[in-house]
Amino acid sequence: MVGRNDRRSGHGLARQVHPYPRTARVNALLVEVLGSAIERLSDEDERLALLTVTAVLTEPDLRHATVLFASLDAVAAAALEEHRVRLQAEIARGGRMKRTPTLSFELDPAVAAGSRVEEALLRIRREDRTERDEP
């Protein structure tokens, strides 16, 4: 058992051991906080109504974070940029972090890749059907 004055840790208080890195924990927290904040903002700004935060990639120094999102609305990126300061304020309030990272927004490339794969599968399925229908 590790006590308050554990000599092995080199500190007066024992350090908590986490199962995954700090940036992964921060990324998960930011996805949660931003998702809630964007949901509230979507009541005021229709451009944010069909938007999903798919991931957040925080730099190791925690000063910058890239928010990856998927949206059916093409102007969602502009809406996010307009509300960037407000979203950062939400992170400061609900994030329990020493520093609030500067946010940037990008469409999630995985969503576009998934759409291309789905289109390819549909095309193959259609080709198979036409081959079977031909005598």
Written account of the structure:
- With 135 residues, this protein is α+β, with helices and mostly antiparallel strands.
- The chain has a domain at 22-107: GMP Synthetase, Chain A, domain 3 (2-Layer Sandwich), CATH 3.30.300.
- It has four helices and three strands.
- A three-stranded mixed β-sheet has the order 1-2-3.
- α1 (22-41) crosses α3 (84-94).
- The longest helix is centred in the C-terminal third of the chain and has 25 residues, at 109-133.
- It is elongated, with a radius of gyration of 22 Å.
User: Main beta sheet: strand number and arrangement?
Assistant: 3 strands, mixed
Low-confidence stretches: 1-7
Using the alpha-carbon principal axes, give the shape.
elongated
**Could you tell me the number of beta strands?**
3
Strand content: 15-25%
Number of helices: 4
Spell out the CATH superfamily of the domain at 22-107: K homology (KH) domain
CATH topology category name of the domain at 22-107? GMP Synthetase, Chain A, domain 3
What is the chain-wise order of helices and strands? HEEHHEH
Q: What value does the Rg take, in angstroms?
A: 22 Å
Average predicted confidence as pLDDT: 83
Which structural class should the secondary elements be placed in?
A: alpha+beta
Terminal residue distance = 77 Å
Helix content: 40-55%
Which CATH class of the domain at 22-107 applies here? Alpha Beta
Spatial order of strands in the largest sheet? 1-2-3
CATH architecture of the domain at 22-107: 2-Layer Sandwich
